């Protein structure tokens, strides 16, 4: 080893030893890291419960003509595999099973008496080891009719109305073997069949955004959850994304996307530049029209679910003020400008609520 390398190594070691402030041990750092991991996990669970609660309430209130026979079996459980963080969060000693990390109030799981921290060990006598296996067991019950069909609420709902009454005695309940603390308990769970196959996710991003995917998942960012002031505002956002899926905007956009890509490629090959601009110019007008339709029907869906859609006016005004870039748009913009959206929301709210 060369002498200069030894000198450099000593310098690096000495520079790493000089620390300002109180002494902190590696053990203290590790303990705090584990504590923060638990808090971050529980925060994600609370956010997922909130997004699911609002989203499901909107889906249940969809009008009859937009309800599908093959929906999603809904339990109201926020599930998680049993990892180290999950075990520490709820002081669990079980080696296998599926953790119920959160439960939506008023859901089938809530009515059944299940609680956050419960660990599902078996369903109808079949052992479960992970979320994927449990989800498969529950989903396959759809063909057996072991669920409650959620009825469509009345067409005209007064302000503050809630979902329609759910039949109390239909279907055949699942038998769940559950570990709660040190005790083994049994619960009967009867899922609900939602009229749309839509699921929900929380995205760890500070960006103010919500989106729908082709697979039927609506994602809401932490940034959006911090930005909204109430469940009513969140319902306006969620209603918009539900409308994208119900109206088939993602599927309808595929032909336009293909044409845009083809023409953009041709322009790029012929001119050597401008291909992406051409493609975007083709996509943008169709995208803006889908956004306008989703804004309109999203407000209608949120209103049918009993949310105060006038809060949508406050949401879009605040969005325009805090995100000035949204105040104007170009021919390449995929969304209408905030002033246009705000005006449309104001007029749509008056229309839906029968105001002049």
Q: What is the secondary structure topology, with strand pairs?
A:
Layout lengths: L2 H15 L8 H35 L12 E2 L2 E5 L2 H7 L7 E6 L4 H5 L6 E5 L2 E2 L3 H9 L8 E2 L24 E7 L2 E7 L2 E2 L5 E5 L6 E3 L4 E5 H6 L3 H16 L2 H23 L3 H30 L6 H12 L15 H15 L4
Parallel strand pairs: 6-9, 10-12
Antiparallel strand pairs: 1-9, 2-3, 3-4, 4-5, 4-7, 7-8, 11-12
Helix pairs in contact: 2-3, 2-7, 7-9, 7-10, 8-9, 9-11, 10-11
Which of globular, elongated, flat, extended, rod-shaped describes the shape? flat
Briefly note the structural class of the backbone: alpha+beta
Overall radius of gyration: 25 Å
Largest sheet: 6 strands, antiparallel
Mean pLDDT equals 80
Give the helix tally: 11
Following the backbone from N to C, one meets helices and strands in this order, namely HHEEHEHEEHEEEEEEEHHHHHH
Domain count, please report it.
2
How much helix is in the residues?
40-55%
Classify the beta-strand content into a percent band: 5-15%
Question: Which residue ranges are poorly predicted, with pLDDT under 50 across at least 5 consecutive positions?
Answer: 155-169, 258-264, 277-286
- How many strands in all? 12
| First and last CA, distance | 87 Å
